[in-house]
Amino acid sequence: MAARCLSRMLSSPKIGQTSLVRDSRVLSPTASTKASSTLPFATLCVIASSAALLLLQSLYNGHLGSVVEYDDGVYFGASVNLVHGILPYRNFALVQPPLITVFLAPFAILASSTGTRVAMESARLFTDLISLLNVVLVALILRKRSNFRQTLGTAIMALSTSTLQASQTILIEPYLVTLCLVAILVLFEGEKLTSSKARIISAGVIFGLAGATKTWAIFPMLVMLYLLIRKIPAGWWKLLIGSAIGFGLAVLPFFIYAPKSFIKQVIIAQALRPQDGVDRLSRMIQLAGIPGISQLAKANPALGWILVVVVYLIAATILYLSQKDHSWSSSSDLAQFAFTAALTVGLVLTLSPSYFYHYGAFLAPFLAILYATLNYDFYSKRVQKRRISGRSWTQMALTAAFVVLALADASVAISPPKMRSEIQITPSISAALATPGCLWSTQPSLVLLANDFSADVNGCPHMVDYEGTTMEYLHVHLATTQTLDSPQLQKLFLGWIRRSDVVIAPTFQLAPKSTQYLSQNFHRIFLSGKYSGFWIFKRTMRSSG
Prior knowledge:
It is a single chain. By secondary structure, the chain is mostly helical. It is built from 26 helices and eight strands. The protein is globular, with a radius of gyration of 25 Å. It starts with a helix and ends in a 6-residue tail after the last strand.
């Protein structure tokens, strides 16, 4: 199969001179180009490669059965709480919009019969399918373009390191990207913005649902709003109405029960979030999405900066050459959207105070569509001038680049996860956590994978997000960032500890009063593992104090 894919990619006439010359023109709004009813074989090969990389990542190097993230436990734990009638914002803190808990609800319901471990692993694999769907959606959005361009855009999406890493467990970005791509697919009739009222409103509803998944959806929606104002003045308000409907349908059931907490947690706490995440070099590398550079940059930061500058200069040069001899108005609606959305999202992520490795997955689809819709006649003219044959080094270079990037992605896939701890949940750990009473933990993934999540035990603390709770409580209520110096917050934690029979936490997250109470009423077991530092505290006696 792999050999056949390479052969077809090498021999496809759409990748050679004829295709580049024909494809150098920009599709005008009135161009009549038939969309293919099936995906090109080379595009199918890219999709298959993406599926293989995602599967390799899931099955290799202990992703399954391990604590590989913090956020995945927050989202799945919140969903398990939700299906037990314990609502985010009202009963526990959640600093993200609520729709991710709804997406995961079928798996949270499954947990009642299979246990939270099997259900959470199923949700992780489902997230892989969502990421694969995103690759297919990019191909469908580019269906009016030639096989070469469709394959190019699909490959950029599939081979982006950020796309791969955001799929290693349950993270929001793949779901957010799906909704945004579906909205784009609905809004465009090939290369042209639709004038259909029903389609514009429907796209608005989907953008609203995306905003209820993560607030970043506002940025591509604003770009779309700008294009509609310029090109279809009667359409912008329909998009706004649809967005309000979609966002309202998803958010209102949660907002009604806890309006003040919703605003404090989702809006204010996020707005006041301090600078956090990876360094500037890592951010620039991850936004580029090119596999392999991160490893080189870690070994030699100076070389990393040189590579970043080279990559960004090449990208900027291609953008400049593609537009040098063409006016903005001659570009198709889809090309204009892709350029503006990629620029907007890229700037937002570059300037954001916080940035984590999976954020770049939100930029990947816009870059993929952008580079698939550029004017490449500056290159095709050189092909004609030099009389390079259709089956020349150009085809082999493109195929070789795909193979090299795919292999680099494979090395990323089999690397240790971007994890906060490398704890493999063994039967002994599950047994150590087992309790008929309450369990309180600052690492929700660990508890979920050990099948000891206590959402269905009356009177237990329902916190699933230690970091979100501290963020909301400190920044909003107390206007400070000093967790251990906040007696109010530590009093809250101590109250939860008093109600629990098992506590999982690193001691540095607890104040002296809490650690003193634990030492007097619990015995402790240290969890080994890189970046771990977690202790399991099991109650030895019930204290009235």
